[in-house]
Design a protein that fits this description.
Number of helices of chain B: 13
Largest sheet of chain A: none
Number of domains of chain A: 1
Largest sheet of chain B: 2 strands, antiparallel
Order of helices and strands of chain A: HHHHHHHHHHH
Largest interface: A-B, 48 and 51 residues
Order of helices and strands of chain B: HHHHEEHHHHHHHHH
Structural class of chain B: mainly alpha
Helix content of chain B: over 70%
Oligomer: heterodimer
Shape of chain B: globular
CATH architecture of chain A: Orthogonal Bundle
Radius of gyration of chain B: 24 Å
Strand content of chain B: under 5%
Helix content of chain A: over 70%
CATH superfamily of chain A: MetI-like
Structural class of chain A: mainly alpha
Chain lengths: 269, 330
């Protein structure tokens, strides 16, 4: 590892740990519903000790919104990425292992899913399914699995010709067991390189959906906070700037950590 | 013009478009409430009789297979249905909005590709030094920023504080300008949205260009070029930068869908009347036929961009065309 890579890895891990800690500690750091009106509206940051980051136009505590928003962003991002990678692994393994017609059909499906503009698809899915946190996860997962599927398929195609897989075949193991217990573990290492990117992308899509008013209306999300702050862009830019910094820090944290993990495990790059 | 290649690529696009069309149909079927509900909710008036009559008229009472068949036949004749929000055919509304988005996307792709090649090349040339470090870190940070937020920051700085650029839209309202001045006006309105969209996708190109340049630096042909005593600038540009352009061009095709999605949010931030803004309007007014049409139009756009990129690739890399010609097609 170069000194630069070691540095960015440390920064990423520290940022991610801080974000997770804030998200977990949100109920103690900022008790109560962050959507409640708790103070005078439009307090600038650092003006009142009780609200270090100020309040918005409805008198909601900005700091409380940020720490509770961390829960939404990180949880939705992680869940959506896990689901997307899960679907990608399933499709990629089945396509690569079975080959033939199944492979053709699944690859056409992957190609089609990759051709629909990702964010348009997520937007359409959320608007059709309804704006709840669960549906946002489903929408992001359904629109971002293709890269994983392609990568896993390519790896499975490589691994399935290796000797130890032939050995398993000769030992008479069931094809499904060979696919998922023998071939898949050998094909997973490069997928690690995609984890950071996928989680970061999921956080960005969640925030963009929330910014457009398609987030869960019952949850305070960073994207929603930016959208609310937009009305007062001229008067109090901090209402837009702060939640945006939080989003960028979270995405940076997961992508740096993901890169470091991939380098450590000897994935691509 | 390689017509055979073009024909083959168009043929390859057919199954992809067919799958997307089926997916869009299923998506519409998933929706609770139909277009008539949305229409009646929008007008605020109506009774059960009117609703039934409208459903009959739009064929919403037919069985699922019949509805799919109607949908498929109409799609095949490029009829995208009727937009409830605009009371006009969907195809017409989309046709009006698409050019603005293509202009936005096209400019952003070119800016982001050019900057990425330049900065990535610079970073590779100065690998391990201060310039490389700052370019790599800046690209990483830009990559993590949400586009809508970067756009709003640009608005605060350049439109509100400095007042250099307009706040939004694509033209000064009410200004009746001669053609040249109108073009300048349009360009001024596009600076912030294009820059925002380009910057959020810049990191990919920087990383790719840098890696490809360093890859080429270790190659035999660069060693041979140096051994022949070619000037360093020539080695850098012809022997390292040119082959490194290929993965960048490929990435432009892969990113077309992402950029189109990104422009949905950017167009909303800057109030640009394009396809993205239209998607947002379709969602907020629950205009499902319009939303379906936008998804299909977006997909066709991505397919078209990819075909153009493939053609470009063949121009840049003579090996691809030759191989295809020798084998009589890939």
């Amino acid at each position: 590892m170069t000194p630069l890579a070691r540095g960015t890895a440390a920064v990423g891990a520290a940022l991610l740990a801080a974000g997770i800690a804030l998200a977990l500690a949100a109920p103690w750091l900022a008790p109560g519903d962050p959507m409640n009106m708790v103070g005078r509206p439009m307090l600038p940051p650092l003006a009142d000790g009780r609200f270090p980051l100020g309040t918005d136009q409805l008198g909601r505590d900005v700091l409380a919104g940020l720490v509770h928003g961390a829960r939404v962003s990180l949880a939705v991002g992680a869940a959506a990425a896990a689901a997307a990678i899960g679907v990608g692994i399933l499709v990629g393994t089945v396509a690569g292992f079975l080959g033939g017609l199944v492979d053709d059909a699944l690859m056409r499906l992957t190609e089609a899913a990759q051709t629909i503009p990702t964010f348009l698809l997520a937007l359409a899915l959320v608007s059709v399914l309804g704006a709840t946190a669960g549906n946002v996860v489903v929408a992001i997962a359904l629109s971002s699995w293709p890269p994983t599927a392609r990568l896993v398929r390519a790896e499975v195609l490589r691994v399935r010709t290796l000797d130890y897989v032939d050995a398993a075949r000769l030992a008479g193991r069931a094809p499904l067991a060979i696919a998922f217990l023998e071939v898949l573990p050998g094909a997973l290492a490069p997928v690690v390189a995609l984890v950071g990117i996928t989680v970061g992308e999921a956080i960005l899509v969640e925030s963009a959906l929330a910014f457009l008013g398609l987030g869960d209306p019952n949850l305070q999300s960073w994207g929603t906070m930016v959208a609310n702050g937009r009305a007062n862009l001229r008067v109090m830019p901090s209402l837009v700037v702060l939640p945006g910094v939080a989003i960028a820090a979270a995405v940076l944290a997961v992508s740096l950590t993901g890169d470091a993990l991939a380098a450590r495990l000897g994935g691509r790059r | 013009m390689p017509w055979r290649f073009l024909g083959r690529r168009l043929l390859q696009a057919v199954p992809v478009l067919a799958i997307v069309a089926v997916a869009v149909f299923l998506l519409l079927e998933l929706a609770e409430g139909d277009a008539v509900d949305a229409y009646l909710a929008g007008t605020g008036a109506g009774d059960a009789g009117l609703a039934a009559a409208l459903r009959e008229e739009y064929g919403l009472t037919d069985s699922l297979p019949v509805r799919f068949l109607t949908y498929a036949v109409r799609l095949a004749t490029l009829d995208l249905g009727h937009s409830f929000a605009f009371s006009r055919p969907v195809a017409g509304v989309i046709g009006e909005r698409l050019p603005v988005t293509l202009l936005l996307m096209g400019s952003a792709v070119m800016l982001s590709g050019a900057l990425g090649v330049l900065l990535g090349g610079l970073a590779a040339w100065r690998a391990g030094r201060a310039a490389d470090l700052s370019i790599t870190v800046a690209a990483l940070v830009l990559n993590a920023m949400p586009g809508f937020w970067l756009g709003l920051l640009g608005l605060i700085l350049f439109a509100v504080k400095l007042r250099w650029l307009p706040l939004g839209g694509i033209g000064t309202i009410g200004a009746d300008l001669p053609p040249l001045a109108a073009a300048v006006d349009l360009a001024r309105h596009l600076v912030l949205p294009v820059a925002t969209l380009a910057l959020t996708y810049l990191a990919l190109y920087v990383r790719l260009m840098r890696a490809a340049m360093l890859d080429a630096a270790g190659s035999g042909w660069v060693l041979a070029a140096r051994a022949r005593g070619l000037p360093e600038a020539r080695v850098l540009l012809r022997h390292m930068a040119r082959p490194a352009l290929l993965p960048v061009v490929t990435m432009i095709g892969l990113q077309a869908g992402g950029m189109l999605g990104g422009s949905v949010v950017i167009e909303s931030v800057f109030a640009i009347p394009g396809l993205g803004r239209l998607a947002f309007e379709a969602v907020s007014q629950r205009d499902l036929p319009l939303l379906a049409g936008i998804l299909l139009a977006g997909t066709v756009t991505v397919v078209a961009v990819n075909i153009i990129v493939d053609l470009l690739y063949r121009r840049l890399d003579p090996r691809v065309g030759d191989a295809a010609a020798r084998e009589g097609g890939r």
